[in-house]
Design a protein that fits this description.
The complex is a heterotrimer. By secondary structure, chain B is an alpha/beta fold. Helix content of chain B is about 35%, strand content about 20%. Chain B contains 13 helices and 11 strands. Classes of the chains: A alpha/beta, B alpha/beta, C mainly beta.
């Protein structure tokens, strides 16, 4: 039973939170730059676009980075420094997927404690040579860690559970990778540039059945930044704000055996909260853009089912064009998603950026026509999507 | 619309050097359950969870994932924030923001550290830039030995002051069943026998590494009347950071402490801090820091803190109680320590601190956390709503 | 019951490798230290303070740092002793996972150009009782073949006997 945890629904004169400017570095392998230098480049661009002065233009900073991936405790020391935290706005580090940092930024404004918040996210994956070891230590010590799990293996377990439940095949998931990568080619913000064939994808190195390396997110380096503001300030800063209409997040069980991996339980709850806040009754009809965080290709249809836009087990069908009703497969990850090369941690925040750009008609290379009004941005964290968060964005002009 | 928030439950474990009898999840469960019991709530009443600790310690990754089933966060919204030493207080501030936003009604903030499961000093050293100063850093101990030397030099404080502070905190800790270090110090001569770490800093001047967890439950003004406990109202909170201190040497600056306290005091009409504030639970990792930082926060003039200490001014039953819980020097599970400051303040304002309840009437409480490259989080709590 | 239970303990040493880039600013600093045995720093064009180590932006005035060689200059490596510590407790070296030998002395030096620097005080048999604030010090740099582009390319700072009398 879905417990009502969220009380608020934005409507009319309730205080709103707007995203007024976004910026990111190219997502690439940036051998030469340090993580904080990537964050600086994103922040610099973002402040230029928003017209806000460094430090004095905002009351709070939310950074997103990982001590493990930066290789230093308090990684936010450096990221906060280049974002203006010195003797200025406070700074808080969210050490989960970046979309959660956007949610915290929105909450800080709704709480009345800040009018304007700078949100950053950064990860330099190319400097970490042993990501699997780090991920393995993200599992509980007495049991799952000792089995030697990492996140890709957990995802493999989830993919198999999903396949078995609905009679899907490895080929179905591989085909999704082909489509995502084709779209990614057109997106100048992503790393991957070449088309892939189905054979290439299926025959590429197997990581954890049925997931091959070409069905996984391409690891890379990058940072992004965005400015959030209360309604009054947002209208001063831009005449094209994008409102955050609703959000939600949810934790699932940690032990994989306690979960039905074929059911994205936490995503369902997170979406439900977001829809309630945003006053959305029929997401499939009301939302035009969905930017989901698929770290592996099988996750795209699974997350689609989790956000409730199609029936369980039908995600693959919808993406293949055989969907119920008027569901347009092009509405899902028009950006090319994560598979095209987005750093972890930045991933969910970059979904918010892609959704923002789509709503403003500025999604260079991958713009969906028809003036979309509502978008859903999603982030996930933890093994096989243990934690999910969802944001609903609305065009504000 | 933004709304007022109040702490309606606190819980902590009985902090120890090592808790080999529990794993991380079980340790957190103890604090969560203690907190819910204190608040007379069930897990079902909590709408969201704010979790955190020091990321790299314990040699673990994404600890909140493991904590979920132990603290009651399954199926609930939640977020993980990690800001080093200030984590605990940051967790409280984020919880305040979650409730003040109007989106969630009742939120639990929980911080922990289980430091025996990692090498804390090595973990702390990775604060330093790996390519610049990490090879040299002595972690917190170098920083605080330097701080002590500068304080002595600038204020004329005699060397036994550190030990005098330590005696006060030991007395407080004896009265606090949750405190970790419960030293019996008969007199100052005995205290001064403690071996040096880096002179003039003695082993006893420096905080320990403890294992423990702490949790608070925060709710909105509308729901306060439905709660069992007398609410402790959240008046204000502020965070101030300093930039990366590439050089760890020379005279450290206390700008962040001064800026945070003065912002908080100015916004809340505090002009005579020792008069208007009833109790201070300040995050001071060393005895000497406690003295200097009381001055930095503005509770007394520069050089005055040690003289007030000599008079016993800061004892639990005296004019201006400082760290009646025993403070960080007696108990330090890093991810929880900042939250313990807030929780202990709340206990004092509720009149529930038992044997370490201050004698002075508790109306306003000041709780801080410190960490990072010189970061301060300061929280103002009140027994009254207005 | 609990007291009698056997506690199972696992021990593991985590080895996680990193490939850190020094970036164009710190990288140039370390590169010049290796090449020339000198500390090249840069003055912030905005607030004029010396950035040591050099970094992409000044966290205080937010002025972007010009790339080498604009505004960069080498430090003399000379200054005065500000304070020092004799470290006498064993601690882990996070770079190696082993215990660092002790005791040793490190100090903070106020270099003549107006910037602070922390490093070892040497040589190994340095008598701590001779140390006073204000003594002149200078960097002792390793010979070129031993330099690798790390701050430890400086062996230590030594007291300058002639100037200290």
């Amino acid at each position: 039973m879905m417990r009502r945890v969220v009380k608020k629904v934005f409507a009319g004169d309730e205080m709103r939170v707007g995203i007024v400017a976004v910026a990111q570095t190219a997502f690439d392998v940036h051998r030469a730059l340090r993580p904080q230098e990537l964050t600086y480049l994103a922040v610099k661009k973002c402040l230029e676009i928003s017209g806000l002065p460094f430090r004095d233009g905002y009351e709070d900073i939310v950074t997103c980075s990982s001590d493990h991936w930066d290789g230093k405790t308090l990684s936010d020391v450096e990221h906060g420094e280049v974002a203006g935290a010195h003797l200025g706005p406070g700074e808080v580090k969210v050490s989960m997927d970046g979309a959660n940092a956007v949610i915290l930024g929105a909450i800080k404004i709704l709480s009345g404690h800040a009018k304007c918040v700078l949100v950053t996210a950064c990860c330099k994956e190319s400097q970490v040579l042993d990501p699997s070891i780090i991920e393995n230590f993200g599992f509980d010590a007495p049991y799952q860690q000792l089995i030697g799990l990492d996140f890709t293996q957990a995802a493999g377990l989830q993919a198999v559970a999903y396949m078995n439940r609905y009679g899907l095949s490895h080929k179905d998931f591989a085909q999704i990778a082909v489509t995502e990568r084709r779209r990614a080619k057109g997106n100048p913000r992503l790393l991957a540039r070449e088309d892939l064939s189905l054979e290439q994808v299926m025959e590429s190195r197997m990581l954890a059945y049925p997931i091959t390396v070409l069905e996984s997110r391409v690891p890379c380096d990058g940072a992004c930044a965005m400015v959030l503001a209360c309604e009054e300030r947002a209208k001063e800063l831009t005449d094209r704000p994008v409102w955050i209409k609703g959000f939600g997040s949810c934790y699932d069980h940690h032990n994989l055996g306690d979960r039905d991996l074929s059911q994205p339980f936490a995503l369902k709850k997170a979406s439900f909260q977001a829809y309630e806040m945003a006053g959305i009754k029929d997401p499939a009809k009301e939302i035009q853009i969905f930017e989901l965080s698929e770290h592996y290709s099988y996750q795209l249809p699974l997350w689609m089912e989790g956000i409730g836009v199609c029936r369980e087990g039908k995600g693959v069908e919808v993406l293949g064009g055989g969907g119920q009703g008027a569901l347009d497969p092009e509405a899902f990850n028009p950006s090319g998603g994560l598979l095209g090369g987005v750093p972890r941690y930045v991933a969910g925040a970059s979904r918010v950026i892609e959704a923002f750009l789509q709503l403003r008609g500025e999604a260079e290379g991958v713009q969906v026509p028809g003036e979309p009004q509502l978008a859903l941005a999603h982030g996930t964290y933890g093994p096989a999507g243990q934690h999910h968060c969802v944001l609903i964005l609305e065009r504000g002009f | 619309m933004p709304r007022r928030t109040a702490i309606v439950g606190v819980g902590q474990t009985y902090h120890k050097a090592r808790r080999p009898d529990v794993n991380i999840g079980e340790l957190c469960a103890e604090a969560a359950r203690a907190c819910l019991e204190d608040a007379d709530l069930t897990v079902g009443d909590v709408d969201a969870f704010i979790l955190g600790n020091m990321e790299l310690f314990e040699g673990r990754y994404s600890q909140d994932m493991w904590q979920v089933d132990f603290v009651g966060a399954f199926g609930k919204p939640g977020i993980r924030v990690t800001t080093g030493g200030t984590t605990g207080a940051t967790l409280a501030c984020v919880a305040f923001e979650y409730v003040a936003s109007g989106v969630y009604d009742t939120v639990m903030a929980l911080g922990f550290e289980k430091q025996s499961e990692g090498d804390t000093r090595a973990g702390l050293k990775t604060v330093s830039d790996p390519l610049w100063i990490r090879w040299l850093t002595t972690g917190a101990i170098g920083y605080f030995s330097r701080q002590a030397r500068y304080y002595m030099r600038e204020t004329g404080a005699p060397e036994h002051m550190g030990s005098l502070v330590r005696m006060r905190l030991a007395e407080h800790a004896k009265r606090n069943p949750h405190a970790h270090l419960r030293l019996e110090i008969k007199n100052i001569e005995e205290a001064m026998k403690a071996p040096y770490l880096i002179p003039p800093l003695r082993q006893t001047d420096m905080c320990p590494t403890s294992e423990g967890a702490c949790a608070i439950v925060v709710t909105s003004e509308e729901r306060v009347s439905k709660m069992a406990r007398r609410p402790v109202w959240v008046k204000d909170w502020v965070t101030v950071h300093k930039e990366a201190m590439y050089i760890r040497g020379g005279r450290h600056s206390v700008e962040d402490l001064t800026m945070a306290a003065s912002k908080l005091f100015r916004r809340n009409g505090i002009t005579k801090p020792r008069e208007q504030i009833s109790v201070a639970e300040i995050y001071a990792p060393s005895t000497w820091a406690e003295l200097e930082w009381l001055e930095a926060y503005g509770f007394c003039e520069k050089g005055q803190a040690w003289r007030l200490e000599e008079e016993g001014h800061f004892y639990w039953n005296r004019e201006f109680p400082v760290n009646p819980s025993g403070g960080v020097v007696c108990t330090n599970p890093i991810g929880a320590t900042g939250l313990i400051r807030v929780a202990e303040c709340a206990l004092q304002l509720r009149g529930d601190a038992g044997e370490h309840q201050i004698r002075r009437e508790a109306t306003l409480g000041f709780a801080t956390a410190w960490g990072g490259s010189g970061w301060t989080v300061a929280v103002l709590l009140s027994a009254q709503k207005e | 019951m609990r007291d009698e239970a056997e506690l199972l303990v696992q021990e593991r040493i985590l080895e996680v490798r990193f490939h850190w880039s020094a970036g164009p600013y710190l990288g140039r600093f370390l590169g010049m230290l290796k090449e020339e045995g000198r500390l090249w720093v840069v003055r912030c064009p905005g607030c004029k303070r010396i950035l040591m180590p050099p970094r992409i932006v000044c966290g205080i005035c937010y002025t972007e740092t010009p790339p080498f060689p604009n505004g960069w200059f080498p430090l003399s490596g000379r200054g005065r002793l500000l304070d020092w510590e004799r470290v006498i407790y064993p601690q882990m070296d996070p770079e190696t996972g082993t215990i660092r030998p002790e005791p040793y002395i490190h100090g903070t030096f106020a270099l003549d150009e107006g910037v602070l620097f922390t490093h070892y005080l040497g040589p190994e048999d340095l008598d701590e009782s001779t140390l006073r604030e204000g003594l002149r010090v200078e960097a002792v740099v390793k010979p070129k073949e031993e330099r690798v582009g790390k701050p430890t390319d400086i062996r230590y700072f030594k007291l300058v006997e002639e100037e200290n009398g």
